[in-house]
């Protein structure tokens, strides 16, 4: 019954949706989606959304552990942030909105969001909208999957480190991950080729045909064509104060800008976050828990390779008294979004040549 086409996405129906049911205090940990943008319809109860722009990514301490395809989690507990561990979080800018029944929220591409239910029962429906930029993002996700699965699978399985999010059923093999990567690269160049062909065709036409091409581009920007190549990312920037004219606001005059709210960080989590109360994701995907698991305790050996670091005297050398680096620490650096983006671009350049 949900007509996403009413929001500027022709042909998109409620079948391309996900149903969320939660109890009071249920929450989705702060994360960003690698793919597309997001439309969320609140059906019953209210949910409070805390949104952060892409420019705040470094302030939110991104991590890929627990691993879940297309979800980059924040290490920060938004409801009760530890500023001693994550001091840069104080530089972030929260956009807070309470979504009531009948309202629809547009979450632009790569906007971080922490969501909590503030009523006894909440029901919402969302749809992820594909974007042109997703083709490069899928290459980045394929690279991330290869690295995470290869490195974490090499660890001792008995150490109890639950590195897969419950939505990821199992770790895929290197061969399968390599297939994902090749398919993602092929899809990227296929989309690039389609875009170049359209530009060449439109540039060779006369004034009358240019008008037609202009209409075609407009259709493509709202998700009509070509198939697999959807909306341009810049279409989803929030309107600025200079764009108050309803004609300039995407999707018509009823779009309400979500502005930053000045409030104490401690008051952000007004609803108690229950550790065993989470949103339920219904699309044959299991529970979207995203619980950040504690890193397993590791030992640093002294130079003689016999004495654990935690047994050393306090006056030991700094090299032996430091906290041990874990596999997760290494992965946080290797699969940092900025690093993966650079690797993906280098890989695409190599493939293109």
Automatic annotation (TrEMBL):
InterPro entries: Cupin_8, HSPB1-associated_protein_1, JmjC_dom, RmlC-like_jellyroll. GO terms for cellular component: cytoplasm. Its main location: cytoplasm. It is found in: Cytoplasm. It holds the Pfam family Cupin_8. Residues 1-144 form the JmjC domain. Keywords: Cytoplasm. PANTHER family: HSPB1-ASSOCIATED PROTEIN 1, HYPOXIA-INDUCIBLE FACTOR 1 ALPHA INHIBITOR-RELATED. May play a role in cellular stress response. This is HBAP1 protein. It comes from Neodrepanis coruscans. The lineage of its organism: Eukaryota, Metazoa, Chordata, Craniata, Vertebrata.
């Amino acid at each position: 019954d949900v007509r996403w086409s009413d929001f500027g996405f022709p042909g998109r129906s409620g079948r391309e949706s996900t149903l969320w049911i939660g109890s009071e205090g249920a929450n989705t940990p702060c994360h960003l989606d690698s793919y597309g943008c997001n439309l969320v319809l609140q059906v019953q109860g209210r949910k409070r959304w805390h949104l952060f722009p892409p420019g705040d990514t470094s302030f939110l301490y991104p991590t890929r552990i627990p691993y879940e395809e297309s979800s980059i989690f924040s290490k920060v507990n938004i409801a009760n942030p530890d500023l001693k561990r994550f001091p840069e979080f104080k530089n972030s800018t929260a956009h807070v909105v309470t979504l009531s029944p009948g309202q629809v929220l547009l979450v632009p591409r790569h906007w971080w969001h922490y969501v909590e239910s503030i009523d006894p029962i909440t029901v919402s429906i969302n749809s992820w909208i594909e974007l042109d930029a997703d083709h490069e993002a899928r290459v980045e996700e394929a690279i991330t999957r290869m690295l995470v699965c290869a490195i974490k699978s090499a660890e001792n399985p008995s150490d109890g480190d639950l590195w897969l999010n419950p939505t990821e059923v199992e770790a895929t093999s290197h061969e399968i991950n390599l297939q994902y990567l090749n398919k993602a690269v092929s899809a990227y160049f296929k989309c690039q080729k389609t875009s170049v062909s359209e530009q060449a065709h439109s540039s060779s036409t006369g004034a009358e045909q240019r008008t037609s091409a202009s209409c075609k581009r407009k259709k493509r920007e709202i998700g009509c064509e070509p198939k697999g190549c959807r909306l341009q990312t810049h279409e989803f920037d929030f309107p600025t104060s200079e764009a108050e004219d309803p004609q300039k606001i995407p999707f018509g005059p009823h779009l309400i800008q979500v502005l930053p709210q000045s409030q104490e960080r401690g008051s952000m989590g007004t609803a108690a976050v229950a550790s065993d109360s989470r949103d339920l994701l219904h699309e044959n995907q299991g529970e979207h828990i995203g619980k950040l698991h504690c890193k397993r305790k590791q030992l640093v050996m002294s130079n003689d390779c016999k004495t654990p670091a935690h047994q050393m005297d306090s006056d030991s050398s700094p090299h032996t008294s430091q906290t041990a680096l874990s596999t997760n620490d290494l992965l946080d650096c290797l699969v940092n979004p900025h690093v993966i983006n650079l690797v993906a671009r280098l890989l695409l350049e190599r493939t293109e040549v």
